[in-house]
Every structure is written in structure tokens, then in C-alpha cells.
Give the backbone structure.
Amino acid sequence: MSAPAGSARRPHVLILGGTTEARALAADLADRFPAATGPADRLPGLRVTTSLAGRVAAPRLPAGEVRIGGFGGPDGLAHWLREHAVDALIDATHPFAGTISFNAAQAAATAHVPLLALRRPGWVPEPGDDWHPVASLAEAAEAVRGLGHRVFLTTGRMGLATFAHLTDQWFLVRSVDAPEPPFPPQMEVLLDRGPFTLEGERALLSDHRIDVLVTKDSGAAATAPKLTAAREAGVPVVVVRRPAVPEGVPVVETVGDAVGWVSATIH
Ligand code: NAP
């Protein structure tokens, strides 16, 4: 994708997106460093591109330019960074999108582009919580067997195959797009996307007589009310821990800190 006609060379920031934070960052950068910045504030405008994987049929689009689809591994991403003269790369993907984060670290090193990871903090258990931390979806499926029979599964449609062998449990699966097989034989699908309310989550747990909740530790405020509802109802929660951010990649937790890093890196 080339720069819009008539624009001078502006520093180019690539955001690996697919999260609320990535959209907030793109909006913030567009606000602070607009393409045509007047002489009064002396800040050069930025070219901001967000990259989406293309998993969601109708994604919420961020401000600035957008490209959709995989790069073809770390080499493909490194090539893209060079070809599009990217000056700074921000990995603002979901904490569980481990492959693209690894690819970003490798590609940034190859193409000599500064890289930052933006990761919201994980959730922290509160008094009254009955959390069962596990390291993977496979471990979550094992844990579910010993904890309950009516499972609220909020880990997304992509990992459903991991639960497909559980024939004794009934699943309420919430996802943005409809899941494809293999999935558990006893399952009801709820197509929805956050933010979710505490009232709504309370009602879901009670209407479906949920006795165990499964979640990734995404740390998102938009999906946190289910944890409060589970605590109130005494429902155990299987929490899948996050993969580590690749070694050597600096991490910030807020959009404001990411904007500060861009500013310092570019200007
Ligand atoms: P993943 O396992 O880390 O990545 C798999 C492949 O998808 C990557 O190798 C890459 O393909 C492509 N890809 C991933 N993110 C991309 C991006 N932002 N732009 C271009 N290509 C991307 O990722 P995932 O877990 O499938 O998640 C896909 C996207 O959904 C991420 O962008 C993430 O932010 C978002 N998301 C994920 C979750 C989750 O629970 N995993 C939840 C909400 C949103 P190539 O190797 O061909 O470049």
C-alpha cells in the first residue's frame, strides 16, 4: 500500500492490531500527529498503518490505513517493513496471539526496526475468587472435567477443537463469529462481542446453570464482568495463563506509554 498521493515522506508506524488497545493507539496517534500538521505545533505528521489478521468477518476498523491478512511468517513481515519504509513497529496484538508476536520480534531484528509490545496487564484474583490457573487450552480441558458439567467457554472459537472430546459436559460457547467443527457435541453458541455488562453475565450464568467458566487471562476490561459474576455465584474459573512476550522486546501496558515511545522513537 503506498502513501496517499501528494503527501511528503512521513514517519511510518505499523501497528499489529486486532485489539481495543490497538484501535485506541491508532486513534491517539492520528489525533496527536495528524497527516497535515500545522507549523504551530512543529510536529511532523505520522503515517499510521494497522495490520489485521483477517480472522473476523466484519472487524472494527481503526483510524489511519489498514491492511488485512498474514505477512507470510517473519521473513514476509521483515520484507513488508522494508518495502513500506516502516520506522517503528508496535505489537499491540492480543496477549494470546503468540505466533505473530514472535514473528514481530524476529522481523524487527532482521529489518532493524524498533519494536515495542503493548500489553494490557493480566487480571488479578480477588478475595472470593476460585481460580484454577492452567498453561494451555489442553490443560483447561483437563481441568474442566474435574470441576463441572455446564461450562461457559469464552476462549474463542479457534481453540474449540481442544474441547471436542468432552462428551459429558454441556458448553455455552461465546464467540464473535460462528465456530466450525470439530467442537464439543453438546454445545450452544452465543454470537456476541464485548463489552459485556455485569447484569448480563449474571443472567447468563444463572439462566444456563453454569457451574464452571473457562477464560484466557486477556486482562480486558470489556470482558472482566464475567469474573465478578462467577465470584458472586461461587462458580470456579479456569484461567489460561498468557504466553511470555518474546525476550528482549520492551513492553508497556498503556496506550499513553506507547504514544510516548512512538514520539521518542520517531522524533
Ligand atoms: P497468532 O496465532 O499469533 O498468529 C497466527 C498467524 O496469523 C501469524 O503467523 C500471522 O500470519 C497472522 N497474524 C496474526 N495477527 C496478525 C496481524 N495483526 N496482522 C497480520 N497477520 C497476523 O494469532 P491469533 O491468535 O490467530 O490471532 C489473530 C489476530 O486476532 C491477532 O491479530 C490478535 O490480535 C487478534 N485476537 C486474538 C485473540 C486470541 O485469543 N488469540 C483474541 C482477540 C483478538 P503470517 O505468519 O502469515 O504473517
Q: What stands out?
A: The pocket of NAP is lined by residues 16-19, 51-53, 55, 70-73, 76-77, 93-94, 96-100, 103, 156, 216 (CB under 6 Å).
